[in-house]
What we know:
It contains 8 helices and 22 strands. It is of the alpha+beta class.
Amino acid sequence: MAGCGLIGKGKGGSGTSHATGWEFGDPKNGGFQSDDNYKQETGPGLVFIQGGTFTMGRVEQDVMYDWNNVPKRVTVASFYMDETEVSNLDYREYLFWLRRVYPSNPEKYGSALPDTLVWREELAFNEPYITNYLRHPAYGNYPVVGVSWKQADAYSKWRTDRVNEKILADKGVITIDNTQSGQNVFTTESYLAGLYQGTEGKKPLKDAAGTNRKVRWEDGLLLPNYRLPTEAEWEYAALGLVGNTEDELLTNRKLYPWNGTYLRDDNKKTRGRMMANFTRGRGDLMGMAGALNDNADITAPVTSYDPNDYGLYCMAGNVNEWVADVYRPLSSTDVAEFQPFRGNTFTKYRTDADGKLVRNEFGELVKDTIADYRNFKDGDYTSQVIEGDDWNTQKDKTKTNNMYIQSTKEGQFSSLISDKSRIYKGGSWKDRPYWLSPGARRYRPETESASDLGFRCAMTRVGSPDGF
């Protein structure tokens, strides 16, 4: 249990309070425990990303003339990010668990299934990928595709629960119950709320009086949530500027996640090797036989090519990646300077008439939205999604934003951009080099998917930002 907040200076976090002089962990004083010596463990699959300030947005020519990512200086807190994109094997583990735990709720499994028909094209022979790409072991280490934003978000929550469940089992606090089903399924939130009725392990935690107790969040034993990274986090991690700084001086602005401005390796030993998986030109997705330029016809294994200076693979090319933010063309003008993010929805747990927390049929705590800042009403038309409003009251305002407005019928109009439009970044095996720059951004409805769109997870860093 080294590194956990449960362990202070001896049993029960012994020592003396600096504030009161009372002894920590003394049953005579109530048994309050100290939380010194805590250090966050790195979750499975993650890499530590030390935060800092950087120029977010495009600094090269905007050849698409979108003007949707004007450069802005921001600061990102330290966090963790998946070393690779989530693979087919990773995602199939999730599907297997859903089918095993919810056999009487096939819709739960069905809602998580990737859309394999994203491979189908009218004038291409892609039928073998429909059958093979997700499930055949030949593609196990390839990035999962055909996953919507909502499915990626659900996978992240499931991963949180499985990781924390294993942490408790490894510590002997609980015993993994392979028969759990229905509402009695381990989730981090339901366990902390005391609603999960699992089997106690051989090494339960004890309070100062020696009585068994459940793990609390303040024990520091459980990890924060796996989640989709924010756009700022993703872009910061992709740039990997940690290798280009010296005493707060940026020595070389990057165009791509690797050093240099070329798409081929310029090192003597590996000169000419492609640095990412992308489309080089019309009809050229992998080069000529005997000299495949990126050694990938569609996607490539998630550990292909050299990692960037943070140790992250395929932050350009291979597949585009969902991020957490909703899309607005002018996000760079209205988000915060620290931890910029567009998409906040503030929630609270739902309770019944007796004040007890409510769980759904899958054992997840139900939450109600109390504030939604994806679409705040601040009087600025460009920050809102207007749908079905009176044209006469809004028509003058459309002049500054008519790229994003479609007239639906006389007296009404609607936007192409909504609160369900999510950003994706990184470029893919289908894309030209323009989209490989970390500053590039595009968007899709959160329920859509594509054959060149996947994701990776992130996790919040708690405590010191230096990682030590």
